[in-house]
């Protein structure tokens, strides 16, 4: 029997080839699926990582914004500190300049005092007194005042502040009766001072006593701008009796007082100014009931400009609460005018 001739492209061979190709295709499909699945997992992980990084970026951005705001605040604070430093430096320069001016003024005043003391030492001794102040002891220790002028004018501040040395007590005493206000310790001290001054006047000279608040007027009616002989003891006693009946009230017009000085003919060669502070009104009453320290200085300077020249002003200052500039202002007035300055204790004279 003849053998069958083999055919390499038989059905069995084709089956094997198909199975092989199918296996390869299946393998590729399995590998592709695994790759796709793994890629999806990686993508998911990356998305989560991206979200986490985005959140961190937002957090860092917010932190950066807060730090920028803080830096802005620090910059503003530094700018304010620089401005304050410049302001402090400017104030220090002004204070240094003011100190230099004060030292120069102190040297000038010391020289003026030295010249005044030398002048007084060369003056003749005082003449005997026309009036005697009894039961008061020897008060000649008050040697700073110039006594013995030919024409002596005594100007007495009778404003409401002369009732006491403190604002509260002035307000209390201002509502008392006239008799009680006349008995106020400060005002009684002022009257006693005038009593002492009149007892030390030049017996051969002339005198006048004025009181002033918002106006200036002589204590003896009908004697405005007139001089009274010191030797007329009766008129001196009458003037003191009238002064003892005066009631302190009203504001303080230094302009009115200095205008009265200018009206005297001949001009006084000694003025005794009894006052407790800077003026509160000018030549005309003001509309406001309150006046600042700066305004009071301005009123004082305006009044001084109207003071007649070559008139020595001897100031007796009764210190009043809340008026710290008064002492230096009246000191300068007394020195520049050739007079004297004192602030007596509560128990003088």
Describe the protein's architecture and organization.
The chain has about 350 residues and is of the alpha/beta class. The protein folds into two domains: about 110 residues; about 210 residues, 3-Layer(aba) Sandwich (Rossmann fold). Helices cover about 55% and strands about 10% of the residues. It contains eight helices and seven strands, in the order H-E-H-H-H-E-E-E-H-H-E-H-E-H-E. Strands 1, 2, 3, 4, 5, 6 and 7 form a seven-stranded mixed sheet that branches. The protein is rod-shaped, with a radius of gyration of 50 Å. The N and C termini lie far apart (about 175 Å). About 5% of the residues have low confidence.
Shape: rod-shaped
Instruction: List low-confidence stretches.
Output: 133-143
Reported for the largest beta sheet, the result is: 7 strands, mixed
Mean pLDDT across the residues is 84
Round the Cα radius of gyration to an integer and report it: 50 Å
- How much helicity do the residues have? 40-55%
DSSP helical segment count: 8
User: Strand share of the residues?
Assistant: 5-15%
CATH class bucket of the largest domain: Alpha Beta
Helix and strand pattern: HEHHHEEEHHEHEHE
CATH fold label of the largest domain: Rossmann fold
Backbone structural class: alpha/beta
Determine the CATH superfamily of the largest domain: von Willebrand factor, type A domain
Report the CATH architecture of the largest domain: 3-Layer(aba) Sandwich
